[in-house]
Amino acid sequence: MINNHKSVRWRRIFSCNLLFLIFTLPIMAQDLLVTGKVTDGHLPISGANILIKNTKNGVVSDFDGRYSITAKPTDTLLVSYLGYTTLTIPIQNRTTIDVALQEDATALGEVQINAGYYTTTDREKTGSIARITAKEIETQPISNPMAALQGKMAGVNITQSTGVPGGAFNIQIRGTNSLRADGNTPLYLVDGIPFGTENLGSTLISGAVLTGYGINPLNSLNPKDIESIEVLKDADATAIYGSRGSNGVVLITSKKGKPGKTKLNINSYSGIGSVSRKLKLMNTQQYLIVREQAFINDGFTEIPFYAYDINGTWDRNKYTDWQKELIGGTAYTNSTQATFSGGAENTSFLLSGTHYKETTVFPGDFEFSKKSVSFNINHSSTDQKFELLLSSNYLADTNDLLATDLTRQAYTLAPNAPEPFNSDGTLNWENSTWDNPYRYINEKYLAQNNNLISNAMLQYQPSKEWSLKLGLGFSDSQLQESKASPHTIYDPSYGLSSKESSLTLNDAKMQSWNIEPQIVFHKTILSGTVNALIGTTFQNRTRKQNGLYARGISNNNLIKNLAAASNISALGTNNTEYRYNAVFGRFNYARANKYFLNFTGRRDGSSRFGPGKQFANFWALGAAWLFSEEHIFNQNKSWLSYGKLRGSYGTTGSDQIGDYQFLDTYSLSGLNYQGNTGLKPTRLFNPNFSWETNKKMELAIELGAFNDRLMLSIAHYQNRSSNQLVGIPLPGTTGFPLVTANLDATVQNIGWEFEMQGRIVRSDNLNWTTFLNFTVPKNKLIAFPNLEGSTYRNKFIIGEPLDITKVYHYTGMNPQTGIYEFEDVDGDGLLTSANDRKKIISSAPKFFGGFQNNINYKNWQFDFLFQFTQQLGRNNNYLGDLPGVASNLSVEFNNAWSAVGDESNIQPYSTGINANITTAYNRFTTSDAAFSDASFVRLKNFSISYTLPKSFSSIVESSVNIRGQNLLTITKYNGPDPENQSVRLPPLRIFTFGLDLNF
Fold first, then answer.
1. Would you identify the CATH topology of the domain 137-256+263-283+319-424+441-803+843-880+925-998?
2. Does the reported pTM lie above 0.85?
């Protein structure tokens, strides 16, 4: 009986379970349609992969980030996108799953890095490549893309030369390699097309407002059209560019369309800018004391008639803050961009238009504006064997400025100078007693630049192992520049008329085309992967430049009409052609996903050298060992998640000497003989000089800890540039100033680069990432045969940096006279520049870097960057005028020495008549006292953005932002600005408010 009861019980249990399975299995097996949206926490991600784990079933998110996939309730989704952390999400019977991916800057094996002719990843690269993306660029209200790199890359030092719109940025990648100031420019490529950055302008026209560098062609690029900027630094990364890679390579890649739903993006911001730093200048009372004491020191018993500032001609109680009047205005910025993009599986497109306008802080109505249109289309065949990419960018900018930077006048004008305007609005010349600075407002500078960059890439892949590529590129730059100088910029007492008005014109054009066919090979061989390519480059560049000077204008209203001028003369015509041809190649071998070998080479040919010297070979070898993949490290990965050793050695070169340097050349003499204009020789024939050579070596270690939450990179580099291309001065008896030749001198740059990245917080609502880069560079001249016997003996010293300045050594003030004294180095009792200016001052940075933070909290995003530099710089003792002349000064020049026993460090004032005081001051400005600490820490940029919640609008996704540039500078520098250390307009402090709409 018991057995029967047990049997009955088991039958009941079995029956119940069977019934349960019968009813539940269909439910469990029923597929679900799962939908949702993939975002980065704010904006949708198009092209994200949504895959059912352990299957090959998957979909791709559309342009709005939306997806739909059929799956079982028990399945798990894998959601991934390049540059973001892959998420694993159990479905758990849900039909709607929205996904917020977190950016993974340490996705070393996923993020593609542009290395020029090929792509690589952080994991596989053997060279030194720094990179910033559109996401970082877009957080900065800038007009020049080089501003986006400041403080963000180890080994890349960028300084802004002026705050005037359209001004230049000076970039040095791992130091100065050439003895020539113009021989240290890196190679710029925009979508693979060489981009000429030499100034097409004329310094006769732009030199007074865009001091030193003229108008910068990089302003012709629209930062908002840029997808990424890569900077190639070591031999492994740059040797494939041969002679053009000696000073590094800057690769600028424009945004491309992506498959998905057609989308419209509108981005707009407006902002204000002002001078970020002002000098503390003397007020009227302080200034008058200095001036009066100067006349007393010079033996005057009465103030002379020409001292209008203190003899009562000008109001002694008047005070004007000329910094506020001349450079204290507000610059307004407006930018609007619309981008239309989309496409299907095999064809995608992007069309973008931008309008940008920026005014100045100077008085008057001046502005810099640019308009750009860019488009690209990418098409591939159904079988993926053919691919075509077409892109083009056209930008027109207009720089309407006054012809003179008023910054120096703002610093030096007497604080009691007269009012600039009469009651009727005309210029006040105060009975010809001053040089009214507002006169410069009537002298107009105008630059109109049109820039076109177009390229095409055709690719045919007959098999998985081979592909054929053809790159075609064309660029066209046209600059029209003018300076109109009406006679009204001069004092009316001179009695001038429009006959003395003038117009200076510059018309420059530069066109370039290049053709690059390539063969690319990819195959798995001997348990490793081979990637190889071979190609050739054909480039041709022509430049035409004409200058005219017109005078004797019939009426100032016609000043820009040449037909209204009675006298027109040519300033010069310059037509040059540059031809370049090269063969290049790359062989890369990767084994076991941990050993990487990369060989690159290039044979260059340049028209800038004579017969027999036109070709040269350049090469590099790079290797990397991913030691964290070794078995010994895999056994215990408690903290070390990534480790790589890499190194490279190779050569690059330079032909940056200009065209036709090896030929006999002639120019117009300007003299007439029997009705004909004669020629004069300007350059001697020298076919023997050849390429500069730069040998580069680097060793680096890269580490990742705690699942790559902490990343560290340490690199040591050494570059030696020899066979220097310089102008060797010739005796005056030859009739020529110099001859271009190779100098057997060697320049060395060594340094350490440190980069660290840390994921401080990683959670659903809060993510905080910090970046630090730190560079310690050292530049020196290590060889220069017969330097002491050359004309460079007072400019360079073996063992010292190239940027040195030889100065007097300031020893203090004579306790009896209060006059500055200096070391008599040779002890002959005389102070001479040749024998006693022996103190060495180097203004090169001792170290520089940046500290960046990105914080995301729910719908909020915070970004800020501190830039820092330790260096020496020229201070107020160099930039100012002799204390006592009719020029305002910094308040530190108060309380000069007046009697024995005074403890002042300012020598007695003088109006320039006292020879001892004047001579001593001139030496003072060329002594080590004219240099001081110019180190600084600058809050370079700051950005706060907020993405409006979805409930705000179902049609448009929008975000608002507040951003700033050059917000705060912490420095002890005794001068206008520690970055450019000059009397040019300092970089502006900028605040903007913006709106981003996605339809």
1. Maltoporin; Chain A (2.40.170)
2. yes
